[in-house]
Amino acid sequence: MQFTVQEMESQVFADTYIPWEAQEVPEGEEERDRYFMRYALHIAQCGRGGVNPNPLVGAVIVRDGKIIARGYHERCGEGHAEVNAFRDAAERGVDVKGADMYVTLEPCSHYGKTPPCADRIVKEKIGRVIVAMKDPNPQVAGRGLKRIRQAGISVKTGVLEEEARKLNEVFLKYITTKEPFVCLKMAMSLDGKIATRTGKSQWISCEMSRKQVHYLRNHYLGILVGIGTVLADDPMLNCRLEGGGRHPVRIVADSRLRIPTECRLVRTAKEYRTVLAASEAVKEAEEMQQKIEALENAGAEILWIPEREGHIDLKRLMKVLGGMGIDGILLEGGSDFAFAALKAGIVDKVRIYIAPKILGGAQAKGCIGGEGFAELSEAVNLKDMKAYACGKDVYLEGLVE
Fold first, then answer.
1. Whose CA is closest to 279, among 300, 254, 315, 251?
2. Does 82 participate in catalysis according to the annotation?
3. Contact in structure between 330 and 187 (CB atoms under 8 Å)
4. Which of 75, 170, 322, 364 is buried most, with the most CB atoms less than 10 Å from its CB?
5. pTM summary value
C-alpha cells in the first residue's frame, strides 16, 4: 500500500486536513495515544476518491512505542483499514498479539461486503483498542466496541474525535440522514462578479484555483449544475487530475429537459455517468417522447422529480440521490441555481474563490443571483469561516448554520 498523502491535499482540504510529522514518541499515555491516532487519521486520507460512500478510515498497530503495521480503507467493497493493517503485519512477519491498535472509526460489527472488523480484532488477540469516534450510524453505534470489550480487550474512545469528525463530514451527514453532503463552490472577482457585463467568465480564477476544483471533483461522488450552466458553457464536469482521478456522477437539474442532445454531457454519457433531473410534468408530454428516448439511448439517466414553486424540488432530489448511494455533491451551478440551492436548504458548506480582479458593472452577474431574500433575517448564515491562499486567489470556506 502507498501511504503518501498528495501534497496538494493540505491546500485543497485545508480545514479538514490532518498533517503528520514524525517526532519522538511522547512518554505519557494520553499524549502517546494522540500521537499515534494523528498518524492513523493522516493515512486515512490516502483513501480519498476511492471509498465513498464509506468513510475515510486509518488503522495503526503499535507495540512498545513503535508502529509495527498500518493500513487504511482504500476502496469501497474492499478490505477495511483494520484488515489492511493485519495484512501489513502478516507481510512484515510481525506478531500483533497483545499490541495496541489505533482506529479512526469504531470497528464494524456487521457483515456487509466484508466480514466484521470487530471479530477480526478479537481473533488476532489485540491487547488494547483506541478509537477516535464511535460509529455515527445509530443502528450500529457501539456494537463493535461492545463485542471487543466482551472479549476482554481494553477500549478507549474519543481520541482526536473532533479531527475525525471533520475528516468524515461527508460520511457523517450521509449515514445519519441518507442525504448527500453538499458543497457549493463559486468563483468571483473581488467585487463579487462571476462574469463581465458581456457574459465573459473564463477565467476569473487563477490556474491553481482551477486545479483545486479537480481535487474536489475527485473527492465528491457527484457534481451538480443547473441547466443554465450547461446551455451557457457546454461543460464536461469530469475530473482531470494529473495521474488520473475518479470522475464524479454528473447531475443536471433540468426541469423542462432543455439539455441539447449534441452537448458534451450527452455525447459522453456512456463514458461518464450522467443523470438528468427533470420535472414529472415533462414525463408524459407527447412532444418530449422522442427527446427522452434520444437522451436515454445516449446513456443519460433521467430522474423524474416533483416540482416546487415551478422548479425541481431540490430537497426531494437530494433524497433520491442519497438513495442512489451518492453521499456528497459538489454544486457548481450558476448564480441563480446557487441561490435556489441555498433557499432550498440543501447546502452544507460554501467555498468561494476570490480573484484579485475588479469587473464592475451593474449588469454584470453577481455571485449569488435569483430573487434574493427580502429580509436580513432570512439570510443564510455561515459559521467556522476561514480564508486560505490559493495561487493569486484566496478562497473562503464555511459551514451553513
1. 254
2. yes
3. no
4. 170
5. 0.93
